[in-house]
Task: structure prediction
Amino acid sequence: MNCDIAQTYELLDALKEGELSDDVTVIVAPPFTNLQSANQALIDSEILVAAQNMHQSAQGAFTGEISASMLKSVGVEMVILGHSERRAYFHEDNALLAEKITTALQNNMKAIYCFGEELEDRKAGTHFDLVERQLKEGLFHITKGDWKQIVLAYEPVWAIGTGETASPEQAQEMHAFVRKIVAEGYSEEIANNVSILYGGSVKPNNASEIFGKPDVDGGLIGGAALDADSFVAIVNAF
Result:
């Protein structure tokens, strides 16, 4: 919940002026109110636009919610689902997210599916079990062909907005585990081809080391993306 329309234009203009690496896919996810304007502002750019959330129903008495068709009507073809804040503050569970994933796929939208453990899970040593459940219960109802529409995003919740960061080794360990689970459930080919992003206090000074790990394909950037110079530096850390 950042950036009014003027701030959004300012940030997007600065991103367009930045020298972004041309072999990295760059996606921004403004608030619902700014999605159409962002799409129009980026029409001559390679930068893509995603929504931060979406309701699982096509329409109905769900005041304040946004459907897939509404997003598509303003040119949005991608949505973030299961962000840690949605799970924590709005009590979105794996079953609900499975419905949202189905809706996204039915509407030919790409979905960035988020998952990750809380600090108590990591301390208890149950973080791998938790992530496996989040993946299987939220995603493993989809077909092999559906995986081309899926991006995964690992968020260690204890490292979001806290200044703490999972070490590059911890990030690699979990990303490799995720690929193993996908390979076991589907195939090695799907596991190797799906992009897995890391989200958790990524900044220009640690991005290269994190992104340098073999199973880390990108970042889900929060606060650092609100400053254009910082975001450009992170993009160019690949």
Summary: The CA atoms of residues 113 and 152 lie 5 Å apart.
